[in-house]
């Protein structure tokens, strides 16, 4: 039996969630807490984290720790991982959810924002994964969940930079999964479509994107339930909603049709 399967029971297991001050990260934290985990919630907004942490304690009946963290700062990342292990014990679950996007055409895109997006969405995830995995590897157990996006598989206009960051997360996660498998550490990549969260307060300048793609919009709580349910299994990817998985296969088989769909039917930004 692979070591990661012991995480089917999350009671008293330490789990760290980034991007936990709102949206999907917040809901993942609650789902982990409902299953009895000791949840560490991380983000830049400490006031929001304190509220989330208190709710986690109510749900789990166990300790929860809010820690201010900017994943774009490597020295903060290493310090947080060490702090968690020193205060709470072995880190068993890492959920990399921190990230942001901006819907804008490439020719108009501020490259300073593009660099920041890669720093947060990609490099921040890589740093945190490495420092956490080094701890997990010594124990030969653990689970890492990287939240990518369907945008990393199916790119659409005005999402070039964001799609590039998520494609990087996908490539990194696929290789990481193979490297860590022999160490008893599972790696799950989550590729959600649009989720009804505050993410689009920044990403969508028009303010109408979620309304335009209403048929495909995911509920953050239900999405979080599916993600947490996959912990302790050997599942490699979670693509939500499933219709996007079908679209991706069609995109691979018929690229010209995929370009038409992505550039016209699904271009709602």
TrEMBL record:
Listed Pfam families: adh_short
GO molecular function, a single term: oxidoreductase activity
Superkingdom classification of source: Bacteria
Keywords recorded for this protein, A-Z: Oxidoreductase
Gene Ontology CC annotations of this record: membrane
PANTHER family linked to this entry: DEHYDROGENASE/REDUCTASE SDR FAMILY MEMBER 7B, DEHYDROGENASE_REDUCTASE SDR FAMILY MEMBER 7B
Protein name: Short chain dehydrogenase
Source organism: Liquorilactobacillus capillatus DSM 19910
């Amino acid at each position: 039996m692979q070591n990661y399967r012991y995480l089917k029971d999350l009671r008293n297991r330490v789990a760290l969630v980034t991007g936990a001050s709102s949206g999907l990260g917040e809901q993942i934290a609650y789902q982990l807490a409902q299953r009895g985990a000791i949840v560490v919630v991380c983000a830049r907004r400490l006031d929001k984290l304190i509220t989330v942490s208190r709710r986690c304690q109510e749900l789990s009946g166990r300790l929860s720790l809010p820690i201010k963290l900017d994943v774009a700062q490597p020295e903060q990342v290493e310090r947080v991982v060490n702090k968690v292990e020193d205060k709470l014990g072995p880190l068993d679950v890492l959920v990399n959810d921190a990230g942001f996007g901006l819907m804008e055409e490439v020719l108009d895109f501020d490259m300073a924002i593009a660099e920041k997006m890669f720093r947060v969405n990609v490099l921040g995830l890589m740093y945190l994964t490495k420092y956490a995995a080094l701890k997990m590897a010594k124990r030969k157990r653990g689970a890492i969940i990287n939240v990518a996006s369907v945008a990393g598989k199916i790119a659409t206009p005005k999402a070039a930079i964001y799609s590039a960051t998520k494609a990087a997360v996908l490539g990194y996660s696929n290789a990481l999964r193979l490297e860590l498998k022999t160490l008893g550490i599972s790696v799950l990549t989550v590729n959600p479509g649009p989720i009804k969260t505050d993410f689009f307060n920044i990403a969508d300048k028009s303010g109408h994107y979620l309304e335009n793609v209403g048929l495909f919009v995911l509920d953050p709580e239900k999405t979080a339930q599916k993600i947490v349910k996959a912990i302790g299994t050997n599942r490699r990817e979670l693509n939500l909603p499933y219709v996007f998985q079908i679209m991706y296969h069609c995109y691979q088989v018929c690229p010209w049709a995929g370009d038409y769909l992505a550039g016209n039917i699904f271009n709602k930004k």
